[in-house]
Specification:
Blueprint: H1 3-16, E1 23-25, E2 39-46, E3 52-59, E4 70-74, H2 83-88, E5 93-95, E6 107-109, E7 119-123, E8 133-134, H3 144-161, E9 170-175, H4 178-192, E10 203-209, H5 215-228, H6 234-243, H7 256-269, H8 292-301, H9 304-309, H10 325-330, H11 339-347, E11 351-357, H12 365-374, E12 379-388, E13 391-399, E14 403-408, H13 419-430
Parallel strand pairs: 4-7, 4-9, 9-10, 10-11, 11-14
Antiparallel strand pairs: 1-2, 2-3, 3-7, 3-8, 5-6, 12-13, 13-14
Helix pairs in contact: 3-4, 4-11, 5-12, 6-7
Pfam families: Peptidase_S10
Keywords: Disulfide bond, Glycoprotein, Signal
Organism: Microthlaspi erraticum
């Protein structure tokens, strides 16, 4: 850090005492007693006229917040709230799985929170996600590239309001569609760090779970995944390899025989819960269904007392939704392939952990392994099981570009299916230990 940047940082530290850097939340409806960790919520204004209000939850590390890493968590979708990660995947609280009886759903402490050893910003993004909103109507639709610019602006402004975290090692993390957003955002931060006049972000690495990377590769990887999991027959698989060239997208539309094979493939797989093929596919309003907890979350997040406790601006949004259906369909997907960004980040020496729940059919581990191989880096730690209490928790391999790949045995599309195992994986990696 040069002299100009040091002086600017001192100024920011002074100004931070007078800045509105969010509000501390000491109690949450549904949780008994004061919160056993420090939670801050708030908005960061984005855009030329501060029209976009990006909502965040910031939880300080329960260990040593002054020195522990600073993470930003970006949920996928696009359009899924980071509150889902906070309460289901890797946060210090979780919704109790109870049949709704008209009262507010309850919260309980967890044992697998990543905040045990990291400071985490859970960000609602893009606009319209969770409690993030725009004060004015959008002139254009949200795209991957302008979302990346907004998140980078958010980070710069958030850190200017919390300058004590500039020196903490900084990591980006998320899952699913954030696999498209995080790698180019890492590149953007790395590039901007070389420019003058703002203190650099202490970028160290990124973590991605079941990351969307190359849609065509992922869709076509579902065929060998389905075969390997005995969802389709040997005969159908071999026929699809031969006649459809292994494709379920972008195949020759004149190939009527391939159409028939794909129809048979869909008949075998359409009733599968693609988030985790071991679980039933059922209505999330059914209390016997694993996804029922999403219904509980909707009731909790839309309770007026909860919004007041979280300091959500009144009248800013209508009903809170776990994943915004409009954003998922209207979002302009102008980054088609994230692999070049992974390559560029590797060239700049950025660490990464890429993990896959091995029973996820939305982004099968087969596709993730394929694009990692395409980077053509040498292997420095061969394929092996990683263990918890003498039991296999998954498999892992490390590459010369500081990239570690790991599977989570029995895991699905997100860490909510195996939160304890995922926490131990995270704990070892962030500490620099072998999995």
């Amino acid at each position: 850090m040069n002299l100009t940047q040091k002086l600017l940082l001192l100024l920011l530290l002074f100004l931070s005492h007078h800045a509105d850097s969010g509000s501390i939340v000491k109690f949450l409806p549904g949780f008994e007693g004061p919160l056993p960790f420090e939670l801050e919520t708030g908005y960061i204004s984005i855009g030329e006229e501060d029209e976009v209000q990006m909502f965040y939850y910031f939880i300080k590390s329960e260990n040593n917040p002054q020195e522990d890493p600073l993470f930003i968590w970006l949920s996928g979708g696009p359009g899924c709230s980071s509150l889902v990660a906070l309460l289901f995947q890797n946060g210090p609280l979780a919704l109790k799985f109870e049949v709704y009886n008209g009262s507010l759903p309850s919260l309980a402490s967890t044992s697998y929170s990543w905040t045990k050893m990291a400071n985490i910003i859970f960000l609602d993004q893009p606009i319209g996600t969770g409690f993030t909103y725009s004060r004015t109507p959008l002139v254009e639709k949200i795209s991957d590239t302008n979302e990346i610019k907004m998140i980078h602006e958010f980070l710069q402004k958030w850190l200017s309001e919390h300058p004590q975290f500039y020196s903490n090692p900084f990591y980006l993390t998320g899952d699913s569609y954030s696999g498209i957003i995080v790698p180019p955002l890492v590149q953007e931060i790395s590039k901007r760090n070389y420019l003058c006049c703002t203190p650099p972000i202490n970028l160290q690495g990124y973590i991605l779970g079941n990351p969307a990377t190359d849609n065509e590769l992922e869709e076509n990887s579902k065929v060998p995944f389905a075969h390997g999991m005995t969802l389709i027959s040997d005969e159908l698989y071999e026929s699809m390899k031969r006649i459809c060239k292994g494709k379920v997208v972008n195949f020759d539309s004149r190939n009527t025989e391939c159409f028939k094979l794909i129809d048979n493939y869909k008949k075998c797989t359409d009733k599968i819960n693609t988030q985790n093929i071991l679980l039933p596919k059922c209505d999330k309003n059914n209390p016997d269904c694993y996804l029922y907890k999403y219904s509980l979350l909707r009731k909790w997040a839309n309770d007026e007392s909860v919004r007041e406790a979280l300091h959500v601006n009144k009248g800013s949004i209508g009903e809170w939704a776990r994943c915004h259906p409009y954003l998922n369909t209207s979002h302009i997907r102008d980054i088609k392939n994230a692999v070049p960004y992974h390559m560029n980040n590797s060239i700049h020496g950025v660490r990464s952990l890429i993990y896959s729940g091995d029973h996820d059919m939305r982004v099968p581990f087969i596709s993730t392994q394929a694009w990692i191989r395409s980077l053509n880096y040498s292997i420095i730690d061969e394929w092996r099981p990683w263990m918890i209490n003498d039991q296999i928790a998954g498999y892992t391999r490390t590459y010369a570009n500081k990239m570690t790949f790991a599977t989570v045995k029995g895991g699905g599309h997100t860490t909510e299916f195996k939160p304890n195992e995922s926490f131990i994986m995270f704990q070892r990696w962030i500490s620099g230990q072998p999995l």
